[in-house]
Design a protein that fits this description.
171 residues; mainly alpha; 3-stranded antiparallel β-sheet; 3 strands; 50% helix
């Protein structure tokens, strides 16, 4: 009976042992988790920026079970995130450079269309939304081509989503 009372009044201990972590390791974990959170936030911002430019490739998700990461694993996660962020920023910068070159080329096309015969630049190539395309074409067809009359035309964009096809009968 005395043993039963001792078990009832004894403080509840979990069924598993929780490892004791010293103060320095806690501070290191807190610092690494803060760095990981900051990198994830910056990577999310980079994803939003890159989305309008066509996006970038996401890494393949690794299946895993929930667990507490040790310091080495936290450092690996941080380093992988830093590398992904660097790669995403590099990709965004390269695309921005290409778009800037295309905008400059478009400006030159608009100023001197005769030097850019039959050149096409899509709106997405200059960072604008939509499906339109700027194209240098001869004015008045074959006569304009022979006379050197060139103009830049912007297409009207994407066709309507519904199209001109048959529509289902109303119910």
């Amino acid at each position: 009976m005395e043993a039963l009372e001792h078990e009832i009044h004894a403080p509840h201990r979990p069924a598993f042992d929780i490892p004791q972590v010293d103060v320095e390791e806690r501070a290191a974990r807190r610092s690494l988790r803060g760095q990981i959170a900051r990198l994830e936030h910056e990577l999310a911002d980079a994803f939003v920026t890159a989305f309008t430019m066509g996006g970038y490739e996401l890494p393949v998700a690794r299946p895993g079970e929930p667990r507490l990461l040790d310091l080495g694993e936290l450092e690996r996660v941080r380093d992988e995130l830093a590398e992904r962020l660097c790669s995403a920023r590099r990709s965004i910068a390269e695309r921005a450079d290409v778009q800037a070159e295309n905008r400059l080329r478009l400006e030159r096309m608009l100023l001197e269309p005769g030097k850019y015969r039959f050149v096409r630049i899509a709106r997405r190539d200059v960072g604008e939304p939509g499906c339109g395309v700027w194209q240098v074409r001869p004015r008045l067809g074959l006569i304009g081509m022979m006379m050197g009359w060139w103009q830049v035309k912007l297409s009207s964009g994407c066709p309507l989503a519904g199209g001109c096809g048959l529509r289902p009968a109303a119910r």
